[in-house]
User: Which sequence fits this backbone?
C-alpha cells in the first residue's frame, strides 16, 4: 500500500530544500504519491510564488500587461532548476502561462501555476511521472468538490502507473466544464488528503518546516513542546482556533477513511513529528500516549459579543432563534452562545461597524431585549484534550492560572464531552493568558 507525502511551500522554496525533499522521498520505498506546493518564502521577507501569481493577474487587469511581475516568477524557477543542476526546459511552460495571462486567463488558473510548475520540476528531478491535478481532482460545474469522481479517477490513474512514483501539483483541480479551480489558500494540504483517501494510503505524511504541532503558539511561548499524538477531534478544535499547521479542510477526507496524518519537518526529518489518529480508534485503545490532561492550547483575537438581557427570557419560546436568525440574515457565523437564565450572549468574529449597527437594530426590533450591549476586542482561547474528561480540577486549574496572572475571564464554556474549555478574555490579556495556561499545564508533562 502506498503513502501520500505532501511537501509545503518552504520545502519547495529553493534548490537546497528541494534536494532535501527528494532525499526524503528516495529514502522511503512506500513514498509513491507526492503532492507539492508552489515555491514559498526563502526567507521571511521573500514573496511566495503564489502571491506573485496573484499579483501578475491583478497587474495584467489594471495595466494590460504584467511582464515585469512575471519575470520574477521566471527567475525563481530558473534559479531552482540551475541550483538542482537539472536538464529540464521549463521555458515552453512559462511561455504558455504568460500567453494565457495575456489572453485573459482566470484568477484560479493563474494562482494554480506555481504548483503546476513546482510539480513538473520535482517530477523531472525525481524521475517520477507528472500527473496534472486537473485530470484527477474534479469539481462540479458549480464549484463543489466531487469526491466520488475524484476517487475513481485517482484510483484509475494509480492503477495505470502500476506502482511507479507520481508527482501531483497541490491546490487545484478542474471543474466538469473545464475551468481550473483552486481550494482556499494553503489548499495543497487538502489535495494531499484527498489523494490519501482516494488511494486508501497507509498514512498521509505532511512535510512542513516545523517539528510538528506545538502545544501552543511558539510566537507567545518560547519553545513549546511538540504534541506527539493528537486525535482528529483535538486537531479540529486546535486548528479551528488558529493553530494552523494544517489546512482545516484537510482533516475531513482522511478522517472519513481513518487514515493517520503525520506532520514531519523537511529540515529536521529525524524529529518524530506529530501523529494525528482516529478519535474512535483512540477511544477503543488502539493508540497509547502519555496521560496528559491537556493536549494543546490555541486561540484567536478579535471577536465581538452582543450581550442580551430580558426578564423572563427563559420562558420566552423562540427568543434565541430570533436572535440567531438576525445573525443568519447578515451571514454572520456564530462562534459561541453562553447563556444564563435571563441573559444570553452571542459571540462572533469581528465585522464592520455598519453591519453591527444593523444587526443590533434588528435584534432590538424582533426581540425587544431590556438591555443590549456590544463587547469588543475579545479573544477566545481553547484548552483542548481528551485527558481532561472526568479529571477533577481542570477548570479550577484554568481559572487559577488566569487568576494568578491577573487575567479577567469574560466567559467560560465547557461542553459536556469535556475535551474542550473555551475562555474569552480581553484581547490585551491574550498573550498573558496563553502563557499562564501553558505554564500551568506544561508542568503535568
Ligand atoms: N500555494 C498555495 C498557497 O500559497 C497553496 C499551498 O501552498 O498549499 O496558498
Assistant:
Amino acid at each position: 500500500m502506498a503513502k501520500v507525502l505532501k511537501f509545503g511551500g518552504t520545502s519547495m522554496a529553493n534548490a537546497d530544500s528541494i534536494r532535501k525533499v527528494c532525499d526524503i522521498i528516495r529514502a522511503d520505498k512506500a513514498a509513491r504519491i507526492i503532492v507539492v506546493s508552489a515555491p514559498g518564502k526563502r526567507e521571511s521577507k521573500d514573496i511566495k510564488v503564489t502571491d506573485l501569481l496573484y499579483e501578475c493577474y491583478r497587474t495584467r487587469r489594471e495595466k494590460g500587461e504584467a511582464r515585469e511581475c512575471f519575470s520574477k516568477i521566471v527567475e525563481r524557477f530558473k534559479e531552482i532548476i540551475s541550483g538542482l543542476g537539472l536538464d529540464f526546459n521549463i521555458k515552453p511552460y512559462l511561455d504558455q502561462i504568460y500567453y494565457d495571462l495575456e489572453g485573459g486567463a482566470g484568477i484560479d488558473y493563474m494562482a494554480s501555476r506555481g504548483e503546476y510548475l513546482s510539480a513538473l520540476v520535482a517530477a523531472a528531478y525525481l524521475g517520477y511521472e507528472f500527473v496534472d491535478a486537473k485530470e484527477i481532482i474534479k469539481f462540479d460545474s458549480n464549484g463543489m468538490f466531487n469526491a466520488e469522481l475524484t476517487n475513481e479517477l485517482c484510483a484509475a490513474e494509480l492503477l495505470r502507473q502500476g506502482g511507479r512514483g507520481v508527482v501531483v501539483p497541490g491546490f487545484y483541480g478542474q471543474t466538469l466544464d473545464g475551468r481550473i479551480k483552486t481550494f482556499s489558500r494553503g489548499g495543497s494540504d487538502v489535495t494531499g488528503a484527498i489523494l490519501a483517501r482516494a488511494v486508501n494510503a497507509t498514512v498521509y505524511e505532511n512535510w512542513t518546516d516545523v517539528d510538528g504541532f506545538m502545544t501552543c503558539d511558539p510566537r507567545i511561548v518560547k519553545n513549546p513542546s511538540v504534541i506527539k499524538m493528537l486525535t482528529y477531534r483535538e486537531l479540529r478544535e486546535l486548528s479551528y482556533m488558529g493553530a494552523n499547521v494544517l489546512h482545516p479542510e484537510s482533516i475531513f477526507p482522511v478522517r472519513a477513511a481513518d487514515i493517520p496524518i503525520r506532520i514531519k519537518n523537511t529540515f529536521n526529518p529525524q524529529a518524530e513529528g506529530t501523529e494525528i489518529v482516529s478519535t474512535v480508534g483512540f477511544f477503543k485503545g488502539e493508540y497509547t500516549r502519555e496521560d496528559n490532561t491537556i493536549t494543546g492550547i490555541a486561540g484567536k483575537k478579535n471577536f465581538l459579543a452582543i450581550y442580551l438581557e430580558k426578564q423572563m427570557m427563559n420562558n420566552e419560546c423562540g427568543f434565541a432563534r430570533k436572535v440567531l436568525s438576525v445573525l443568519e440574515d447578515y451571514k454572520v457565523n456564530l462562534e459561541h452562545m453562553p447563556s444564563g437564565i435571563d441573559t444570553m450572549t452571542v459571540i462572533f468574529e469581528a465585522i464592520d461597524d455598519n453591519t453591527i449597527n444593523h444587526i443590533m437594530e434588528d435584534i432590538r426590533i424582533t426581540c425587544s431585549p431590556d438591555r443590549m450591549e456590544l463587547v469588543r476586542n475579545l479573544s477566545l482561547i481553547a484548552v483542548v484534550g481528551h485527558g481532561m474528561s472526568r479529571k477533577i480540577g481542570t477548570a479550577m486549574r484554568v481559572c487559577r492560572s488566569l487568576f494568578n496572572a491577573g487575567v479577567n475571564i469574560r466567559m467560560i464554556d465547557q461542553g459536556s464531552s469535556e475535551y474542550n474549555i473555551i475562555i474569552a478574555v480581553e484581547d490585551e490579556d491574550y498573550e498573558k493568558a496563553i502563557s499562564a495556561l501553558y505554564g500551568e499545564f506544561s508542568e503535568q508533562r
About this structure: The pocket of aspartic acid is lined by residues 9, 37-38, 48, 50, 114, 170-171, 185-189 (CB under 6 Å). The chain has a mean pLDDT of 93. Residues 107-126 form the longest helix (20 residues).
